[in-house]
Specification:
This protein is an alpha/beta fold and 318 residues long. The protein has helices spanning 7-16, 39-45, 47-66, 103-114, 175-187, 221-229, 240-249, 262-273, 309-317, and strands spanning 3-5, 22-24, 73-76, 88-91, 119-122, 145-147, 163-168, 194-197, 207-210, 213-216, 231-236, 253-255.
Length: 318
C-alpha cells in the first residue's frame, strides 16, 4: 500500500501509518477567508490553480502506474488521482456540491469528474435515514454509486467522563484559528472541565493548561478516540468526517459551521431540523448554547460497516 497526500493530511497519515511508504502530491493550498461571504469568490479565483494541480496529480499517477508501483486507487475527493489503466475509486459524499446560486453548475462539474473513476463510494446509507442528505443522494444520476455506510477510525467505549466539554478544531486557516480564539474566550471563565484539540499536526505533541482549559496541539486516532469517549459533549465544525465519527461514537455534540462553507452550513441545518444536533453561527456561540444539547436526540443511530471485503474485490478482479 502506498499513501499519497500533502500538507497536514500527509503529516497525519505518516503519524498514523509510520510503516507505510508515502509520496507527496501537489498541494491545492486551500485557505479560507476571514469573512465567509467572500469564500466562494476566492475559490473561483483559484480555479485555474486547482485545474493546474489536478493536472499535476494526473502526471504523478501516470508515472506510478507506468512503473508498476500501484495497481489500484482509492482517492478521497482528489479528482486528479485516477487512472483508466487500473481500478480507480473516488470516495466522496459530495454527489452534489453546494455553492449558493451556482450549486447546479458546481454539482454538474463534480459529477463529470466522478464519472472518470471506475466506481464512486459514498460513505453513507442509501435510504431516507442518512447523514449526508442531498449532498450524497440524487434523484437521478448516471454516476455509478455504491453506498458503503459511515466511515470512522473510531469505536465507542464506555469510559469515565474526564471533561464536560471537548472542543475539536479542524479545517484551513484562518477560520481554524478564529474559532480557537472564540472558544478560548467563551470558556476561559467556565466552571466546566474543558479540553481543546487544536488540530495542528506537529513533530511533537504537547499538552498545556491555558486559563484552566486543557489544550492538546494534536492527537493521533486512538488518543482522540479515548478523549472523545471521556467527554460529555463535543463542540466542533459540522464537517462530514466529524459527523461520521460522532455518529459512530454516539456522542452528543454542538456544531459551529465554518463561515461561508455551504456544505457545513447545510449539514448543521439538516441535523438541527431533524432534532439530532443543535448548532449556531460562530459569532453567536456562547456557553449557554450548550444547554440545548440535552433537548436533541443525537447522532447515535448509525454504525460503521464491519466487512469491506466485497468492495475490495474490485481490485482483486483486475
Amino acid at each position: 500500500m502506498l499513501l499519497a497526500s500533502d500538507g497536514a493530511a500527509l503529516a497525519l497519515l505518516k503519524n498514523e501509518f509510520p510503516e507505510l511508504p508515502y509520496i507527496e502530491l501537489p498541494s491545492y493550498n486551500i485557505t479560507y477567508t476571514k469573512k465567509g461571504v467572500f469564500l466562494k469568490w476566492k475559490l473561483l479565483l483559484k480555479l485555474p490553480q486547482l485545474i493546474k494541480t489536478m493536472g499535476a496529480e494526473k502526471k504523478v499517477v501516470k508515472k506510478l502506474v507506468a512503473e508498476g508501483k500501484i495497481h489500484g486507487i482509492i482517492s478521497d475527493n482528489r479528482m486528479g488521482v485516477f487512472s483508466k489503466k487500473v481500478p480507480s475509486v473516488v470516495l466522496t459524499h459530495q454527489l452534489r456540491v453546494l455553492s449558493g446560486n451556482t450549486s447546479y453548475f458546481s454539482s454538474k462539474i463534480h459529477q463529470k469528474l466522478i464519472k472518470k473513476f471506475t466506481e464512486c463510494w459514498v460513505p453513507d446509507l442509501a435510504g431516507p435515514i442518512n447523514l449526508s442528505g442531498i449532498l450524497g443522494h440524487l434523484d437521478k444520476t448516471d454516476v455509478s454509486v455504491t453506498y458503503i455506510g459511515p466511515l470512522s477510525r473510531m469505536s465507542k467505549k464506555i469510559l469515565p467522563i474526564k471533561f464536560d466539554v471537548l472542543c475539536i478544531l479542524s479545517g484551513p486557516e484562518p477560520q481554524r484559528s478564529l474559532l480557537e480564539k472564540k472558544l478560548m474566550e467563551v470558556f476561559k471563565t467556565s466552571k466546566k472541565r474543558v479540553a481543546l484539540v487544536q488540530g495542528t499536526v506537529r513533530d511533537k505533541k504537547t499538552v498545556t493548561d491555558n486559563q484552566g482549559i486543557t489544550v492538546f496541539n494534536f492527537l493521533e486516532t486512538r488518543e482522540l478516540e479515548k478523549l472523545i469517549n471521556q467527554s460529555e459533549i463535543v463542540v466542533a465544525r459540522s464537517g462530514y468526517t466529524t459527523i461520521m465519527d460522532l455518529a459512530v461514537l454516539d456522542k452528543p455534540a454542538f456544531f459551529i459551521p465554518t463561515p461561508g462553507q455551504y456544505e457545513q452550513k447545510y449539514l448543521a441545518k439538516k441535523l438541527k431540523e431533524q432534532g439530532m444536533v443543535p448548532s449556531c453561527k460562530q459569532e453567536k456561540f456562547n456557553e449557554k448554547k450548550l444547554r440545548k444539547v440535552a433537548l436533541y436526540k443525537g447522532l447515535g443511530k448509525f454504525s460503521a460497516r464491519e466487512d469491506y471485503s466485497d468492495l475490495f474485490s474490485l481490485f482483486e478482479r483486475e
